[in-house]
Amino acid sequence: MSLFWGLLVCLREPQKVKAVAAGAAAVISVAGGLWQISVPAYPDTYRRPSVAYSTISIANGKRLFAQNCAACHGSGGLGDGPAASTLPKPPANLSEPHTALHTAGDMFWWLSHGIPKSGMPGFADVLDEQARWDVINFLRTFSEGFQARLLSPEIVPDHPWLGAPNFFLEDENGAERELKDFREQSNVLLVFPEKSDAMRVKQLRLEQKRFRKERLWAIIVSPDAKLAAGVPNVRRGAQEVRESYDLLSRSTTNRGDPTRLEMGRHSMEFLIDRFGYIRARCLQEEDECGWQNSDELISQVRVLNRESKILPPPAQHVH
Ligand code: HEC
Fold first, then answer.
1. Measured in angstroms, how far is the CA atom of residue 73 from the centroid of ligand 1?
2. Which of 221, 190, 241 is closest to 58 using CA atoms?
3. CATH class for domain 151-316?
4. N or C: which end of the chain has fewer CB within 10 A?
5. Distance 139 CA to ligand 1 centre (A)
6. Over the Cα atoms of the chain, what is R_g?
7. Domain residues of the chain, as ranges?
8. Of 1.10.10.10, 2.60.40.10, 1.10.760.10, 3.30.420.40, which CATH number belongs to 2-147?
């Protein structure tokens, strides 16, 4: 019934629906940029993603985007591709929050059937279902990267909002785990070191025991076996994990950077809470983080440890 009502409203009063949606989007993005309610518009509006929100999927979606979408939407997703000027309507800028505010199901519908009047083609014949979900997972991370510009080295207590994409890792004994396994158990410090950060990695290795007592696991993402030895790490799949988290490394100082799909960050670290949300970030090039002082880091972790569950797990946290 409500779906039918939504369809009717859409058909009769497209302007009004747009205005209401824009108003709601503005309020929500001010409130912290969460995924929000929307008016059901298509049979797929409430369809759930059938591909998990993981770094493999995001990296694959990024590749598919370059191949299939960049001609119109631009290689940096800004809506400024070479074919843009030939279309009846300008292609959407996909790097901004409104992209993540649509339901995953709506995105699936558009990707499958296109938006005929504006020149956005459907891809049902070109991309199979899994590939379409990969692209949607990528678009989610890419657009959340816009709000992620506001992340800092300081957590904001009781305010989780940015889901951490899942990935596989090996613990220091070589056993396979995934980020999800830490849910309700432990916080995670996800570290992307450069070769020159060997000292930082050594420090993390030495602090391992102390960190775990505080419910913090440090995980190193690097294809370099020597660098990652003796610490939980991502080696296989390091490239995909880096590409995905790189999308969440935008900051307010590079807002206008057209190459923001490839931030090419040097060292970066993310603090992920035990419910799977990224809560703080340290970009070595920009921030004075103080995370190398373990006492400071641990005092933030203790604040996280006192929080209870605020949101459902991030993979479910889409409309
Ligand atoms: C031939 C050009 C063209 C190609 C190729 C194209 N798009 Fe689009 N796309 C558009 C145009 C034009 C719009 C604007 C539609 C509107 O505003 O009504 C659009 C809109 C969208 C929207 C809606 C965004 C919003 O917030 O309203 C999404 C999502 C999207 N495109 C994703 C993609 C993806 C993903 C691909 C590749 C798989 C793709 N597009 C390929 C032209 C294109």
1. 7
2. 241
3. alpha beta
4. N
5. 11
6. 20
7. 2-147, 151-316
8. 1.10.760.10
Residues 72 and 90: their CA atoms lie apart, in Å, by: 9
Indicate which atom in ligand 1 lies nearest the CA of residue 69: 37
- 131 CA from centroid of ligand 1 (Å): 16
Nearest CA to ligand 1 atom 29: 107
β-strand partners of 217: 188
CA distance 122 to 17: 23
d(CA 231, CA 154): 24
For the entire predicted model, the pTM comes to: 0.85
Tell me: the pLDDT tens digits for 4-38? 333 333 333 333 334 434 444 444 444 344 444 44
Crossing angle of the two packed helices 129-147 and 104-113, in degrees rounded to 10: 130
The number of CA neighbours under 13 Å toward the Cβ of 89 is 10
Instruction: Give the model confidence (pLDDT) of 229-280 as tens digits.
Output: 899 999 989 999 999 999 999 887 764 454 566 666 778 999 999 999 999 9
> What is the whole-number distance in angstroms between the Cα of residue 241 and the centre of ligand 1?
26
- Say if CB 123 and CB 111 are below 8 A apart: yes
Protein residues whose CB sits closer than 6 Å to any atom of ligand 1: 65, 68-69, 71-73, 83, 87, 89, 91-92, 98-99, 102, 107, 110-111, 115, 118-121, 123, 135
